Amino acid sequence: MNDVVSTGTGRDELRAARSQSKGLFWAAALFSVFVNLLMLTGPLFMLQIYDRVLGSRSEETLLALFILMAFLFATMGVLDYLRGRILTRFGLAIQARLEGRVFAAIMTKAALAANPNKVANAMRDLDAVQRFTASPVFTAVFDIAWTPVFLAGILVFHPWLGVLALVGGGLLIALTILNQIVTKTPAQQAYQATAQADRLSGQLKAEAEMVTALGLREAGFERWLAHRQDAAKHTLLYSDRAGWFTTAIKAFRMFLQSAMLGLAAYLVLQNQVTAGAMIASSILMGRALAPVELMVGQWSVLQQARQGWRNLATLLDTTHVPPPRMALPRPKAVLTAEKLTLVAPGQSRAALKMISFKVEPGQAMGVIGPSGAGKSTLARALTGVWKPAGGTLRLDGVALDQYDPAVLGRYVGYLPQRVQLFDGTIRENIAGLATNPDDAAVAKAARTADAHQMILRLPDGYDTPVSTGGGL
Q1: What pLDDT shows up at residue 472?
Q2: Same domain, residue pair 157 and 298
Q3: 28 in a domain, yes or no?
Q4: Helices (runs of H) and strands (runs of E) counted in the chain
Q5: What's the chain's Rg over C-alpha atoms?
Q6: For the whole prediction, is pTM greater than 0.70?
Q7: d(CA 93, CA 17)
Q8: Which of 28, 140, 258, 388 is the most buried (most CB within 10 A)?
Q9: Which residues of the chain have pLDDT under 50?
């Protein structure tokens, strides 16, 4: 289930997953080299048109240049398309390698949390990272490395053109950095408020029957609406700030191109550059600044991916992968507790202290006590979900933590206080959500529970679909 083994820290695990796809990353980087080199086709074509074709009035030269230009642009389009497909597969490969690990971490954290509903949905963070790798803003990360090259190309035409390009480009990059600083806080606050609203909405939906029966619908709506309004407030603040920077950068970029054209025209009048250089420098300026404008315009995608990456690192850092367990013989159901002490996660006081018992095959033991006495805590320890804080809990003399959790789950039956079905068929639910259930084992389990005839009376028998709420 886990393609990435825990290496000590969450960031190490994320880097390991990313490095396994470094071949795709470097292939995209190589394609970016050729794509950006072919971006010079436009400026060079205009340079040749103005300086050679118009001067010589040669139709043959014009035709040859046009054919070459069309071929180079077609090649650039194909390479750019392939680069996008490679980056999409790069993101999907990272997602595929981390899905099992992230899913296991979510389940572990939810099982140990005092309130599982408050556990963040890390799959959403993983999706944000994948969306970033498939978005145009990720290709802009590769292209922006070529911005200095294009600016330097303008410098070749004339020093004053180069100065204007470098100063203008520097101001745009400064605006981009300032945009990141100014919008970071409201973006994070909007993300957190939206997550809180989504969690509360999920809780209210899951407990709709209780909420309605107790008359909590209005109060629940007000609490949910407060989170939504808080998210809307921060989203509006982020949108206003980001929108200002987006507009400012777009307007300044257009001004720079026009200023470049105006300065180059002045230099043409002074016979210091050619008309071709005037047009080419303007095109180069637009190409150099295009990735900057694109990144600012889709900054929210980048910020969500960064936040998701940090959230995933924190989650993986706090939920480590257990080492592989040796396959043990099927136990004979001798359950022993010796001076067992249990502390609920997040608590400092022990729910159960120094208890000992032994249950042989065929025996039964009942545990009674008031609410909060530790009955559910003991049940969670018997299933291996919660670990003992002291003492031992053994099955056939083997500590429960030496069993693989999936294997232990097949040996220990557990009926929680709240019975939950999952979306699927009755057969799949009886089989523990197995994708290829053993029909004979499913029927045997139903007969053992005296439910076989009841199931057969349903519309589709064992293939009757059920929902999370238990409805057919």
Answers
A1: 58
A2: yes
A3: yes
A4: 18, 6
A5: 32
A6: yes
A7: 8
A8: 28
A9: 1-7
Output the furthest CA–CA distance in the chain (Å, rounded): 105
Q: Which long-range contacts (CB under 8 A, 24 or more apart) does 121-124 make?
A: 121/195, 121/198, 122/311, 122/312, 122/315, 123/99, 124/308
- pLDDT tens figures, 132-181: 888 888 898 899 888 888 888 888 888 998 888 888 888 888 888 888 88
Rounded CA separation 272/249 (Å): 30
Q: Does residue 328 fall inside a structural domain? A: no
In this structure, is residue 326 part of a structural domain?
Answer: no
Residue 355 near residue 363, CB atoms below 8 Å: no
- The three-state secondary structure class of 270 is coil
Instruction: Tell me if 324 is assigned to some domain.
Output: no
Angle between helices 299-318 and 122-133 (to 10 degrees): 140
- Nearest CA to 437 out of 451, 448, 426 is that of 426
On whether both 251 and 299 belong to a single domain, the answer is: yes
Q: How many CA atoms lie within 13 A of 408 on its CB side?
A: 20
Residue 84, token pair as written in the block? 């996008």
Beta-carbon count within 10 A of 211 CB: 18
Same structural domain, 382 and 279: no
CB within 8 Å of 384: residues ≥ 6 apart: 400, 401, 403, 405, 408, 409, 412
Q: What is the pLDDT of residues 375-388, one digit of tens each?
A: 888 888 888 888 88
Give CA–CA dist 352/341, Å, rounded: 5
